[in-house]
User: What shape does this take?
Amino acid sequence: MGADAGILGATTAGVPTGFPAFPMRVTKIWRTQLTGGTPATVNVSFDLGTGIYNSGIAGNYSLLQSTTPDFSAATPVTGGSISSNVITFNGVTLNDGDYFTLGLATCAESRWRCQWLEGMVKS
Assistant: This one.
């Protein structure tokens, strides 16, 4: 897997339409590259202690997966689990060339979190 040069801030650009619960995503985008074989299920983890706010609530995050770096047509994959500062989505199938990133939920549960995300989007 590789990543673009994006930061770990938040953005509202290229977020899934029709899913108002996840109006933001992490700016950084990762891309898969498979060698020698067919796609299999993997576990995808994000370290929430490295520039991504950890709300402690797994439902505040989703995995966004797309065939292009624009996630507006992606369906958020929910059901992750948080352990310490890491959120993990188990049993994800990533195809060669897929793009993925972390979707972020609305900020209704925490004013501090809203301010953090708003600051990251403006950066």
Summary: The beta strands are 2-3, 10-11, 24-26, 30-31, 41-47, 61-66, 81-83, 86-93, 99-104. The chain has one helix and nine strands.
